[in-house]
Amino acid sequence: KMVCAHELAHDQLHRGISSAAWIKDFEIYENNSKQEYEANIFVSELLIDESLLIDLIKQKKTVEEIAKILFVDPTLISLKVRLLIGKGYNFIPQDYNSKFLK
Fold first, then answer.
1. pTM score, two decimals?
2. Distance between CA atoms of 13 and 35, rounded to whole angstroms?
3. Are 101 and 73 in contact (CB under 8 A)?
4. Among candidate residues 6, 80, 55, 72, the one with its CA nearest the CA of residue 64
């Protein structure tokens, strides 16, 4: 489901870029480009319910526990937490592994 959401993100956010050139499999999940980062953010927004995540954080669940509960990679939790921090929540930023889908 994460890979499908990631590809959906590219379709919706980067349609012009992906139609201009073939994407190499080994480059798809590298986070060294703006497009890959945007796609990963899209995935975190699509697959993680914000209010449920906030409740789980308030319950003092770890990133790994939350990821298991929500059936997503811990990196998506880290990305979503960063988005919540940007919205004003007082959470601690988590490490982000750009190669989590590889």
1. 0.72
2. 8
3. yes
4. 72
